[in-house]
Amino acid sequence: MAKLKQQSLQKRDAELANAKRQLEILSNGIFQNGELPTFAKKIKETNQLPLRPKKLEILQINVGYMCNQVCEHCHVDAGPDRKEIMTWETMEQCLEVIKNTEAHTLDLTGGAPEMNPHFRRFVEEASKAGIKDFIVRSNLTIIRANKKYHDLPEFFKKHNVHVVSSMPHWTRGKTDKQRGEGVFDMSIKALQELNAVGYGMPDSDLRLDLVYNPNGAYLPGDQASMEKEMKAALLEDFDIRFHSLFAITNLPIARFLDYLIASENYEDYMYQLVEAYNPAAVENVMCTNTISISWDGFLYDCDFNQMLKLPVASKVKHIKDYNEDLLNDRNIMISQHCYGCTAGAGSSCQGTVAN
Amino acid sequence: MAANNYYDPADLRKFGKITEWSEELGNKFFDYYGKVFEEGALTAREKALIALAVAHTEQCPYCIDAYTKDTLQRGVTKEQMMEAIHVGAAIKSGATLVHGTMMMNKVNKLEM
């Protein structure tokens, strides 16, 4: 069992458990005194304000904030102490939407989505809807955390689920420092088990992609180079194969923001994000093709806005009232955390967005 | 210049501004600099590690700051970074010691 690093900000009653306070920090200081331009000002320079949605492609459903890990950088502030879990009633409302949506991708996330007691029933029902790409974001260690999860690789295979998993580095030290002691070894074992049922093999349709995110106050390197390094290292050291690596930038919210402030890296990090701003990444930023649904059924432009409690600027606020056309006619809510998705080659739940 | 220090970390952000007082030369430098660090016969990662080692032998605080961050971004481990610096340190100390042969030659020439 992985040793937990800490409790969630919420459990600790920390200042940054409060989304409003996070938004204040992101709007004050260097952004208030004009040292750095606000995100709105920056995208206005290239006539991209207001940011508007394009065609909906991805429905991302957060089925709960409970997780078996307490990763240092977690933007959800997830952990074993989080009790926000999607009910079956809300899942049924989601299923109705999944049946009728024009989105081609369904993306289940958390916390550890597998810890939702209705997870398997939901996957079984959702997989019948004929969605082209059905993603589950699995933290890997959950597969080894308890006997009741050991058959997850087989379960994923049965429903042709596309598994996307975090693996911040190919070395034990870097991985455990971010995700908790013992996480690396458990993740390696889980990856080997996924490989054993066919996931990640070169010619396999069972997609296994990994997510890399930096281990501190710096941006991710080139995605293609990192993928090459990660593939070579995991193959040589552990005989593990996977398909693609998504390099994701840590956004300055929740626990990562807490870390940035505590380590006195906040201003430097914001400078890095702003200096790496790429207007081409704004074109394809994920909030323009995604709707994020929270555990309690509310709708957001992305998972980050969900955590900052910035709901969609639309009459349609909840999954029970879902109307895709109405929802697509909205302005996307932005703040300075959005720089995280537009730095360098850009960043989304599917990795980089610009060349 | 910062009030009480010759070096200020914030000055690193101003590096690009050197073009303001000599645009043509500044631009030529940055074009060259950018080209050098592109993928070539060496990978960008290998070049970043060389730059980190040289940053230390040059004892340039700005370069150390920049290439520590750059190598971390490229997934380089602490152990690899330290080994690269040892390469620089070995060459530095070797370069000192190998000059000892000059001293030995001179002594041999001067002494009876």
Secondary-structure map:
The complex is a heterodimer of chains A (355) and B (112).
Chain A: H1 19-27, H2 39-45, E1 58-62, H3 88-100, E2 105-109, H4 119-127, E3 133-138, H5 141-145, H6 152-158, E4 162-166, H7 172-179, H8 183-196, E5 208-212, H9 223-238, E6 245-247, H10 254-262, H11 266-275, H12 279-283, E7 290-293, E8 299-300, H13 303-307, H14 324-328, H15 339-342
Chain B: H1 23-36, H2 44-57, H3 61-73, H4 78-98, H5 100-110
Helix pairs in contact in B: 2-3, 2-4
Task: Kindly list the characteristics that best describe this protein.
heterodimer; A: 355 residues; alpha/beta; TIM Barrel; 8-stranded mixed sheet; 8 strands; disordered N terminus; B: 112 residues; mainly alpha; AhpD-like; 5 helices; Alkyl hydroperoxide reductase AhpD (chain B); AhpD-like (chain B)
Q: What is the strand tally of chain B? A: 0
| Series of secondary-structure elements of chain B, N-terminal to C-terminal | HHHHH
Describe the sheet with the most strands of chain A. Answer: 8 strands, mixed
Helix content of chain A: 25-40%
Amino- and carboxy-terminal Cα gap of chain A: 40 Å
Mean pLDDT of chain A: 94
Strand content of chain B: under 5%
Largest sheet of chain B: none
Can you write the helix and strand succession of chain A as a string? HHEHEHEHHEHHEHEHHHEEHHH
CATH topology of chain B: AhpD-like
Rg for CA atoms of chain B: 19 Å
Q: Enumerate the spans of chain A where pLDDT stays under 50 for 5 or more consecutive residues.
A: 1-5
Organism (chain A): Patiriisocius marinus
InterPro entries (chain A): Aldolase_TIM, ArsS-like_C, rSAM, rSAM_ArsS-like, rSAM_sf
Domain Radical SAM core (chain A): 61-199
Protein name (chain A): Radical SAM/Cys-rich domain protein
Descriptive report:
- The complex is a heterodimer of chains A (355) and B (112).
- Chain A is α/β, with parallel strands linked by helices and 355 residues long.
- Helix content of chain A is 35%, strand content 10%.
- In chain A, strands 6-5-4-3-2-1-7-8 form an 8-stranded mixed sheet.
- Chain A is globular, with a radius of gyration of 19 Å.
- Chain B has a single domain, classed as Up-down Bundle (AhpD-like).
- Chain B is 65% helix and 0% strand.
- In chain B, helix 2 runs antiparallel to helix 3.
- Chain B is extended, with a radius of gyration of 19 Å.
- The mean pLDDT of chain B is 94.
- At the A-B interface, helix 9 of A face helix 3 of B.
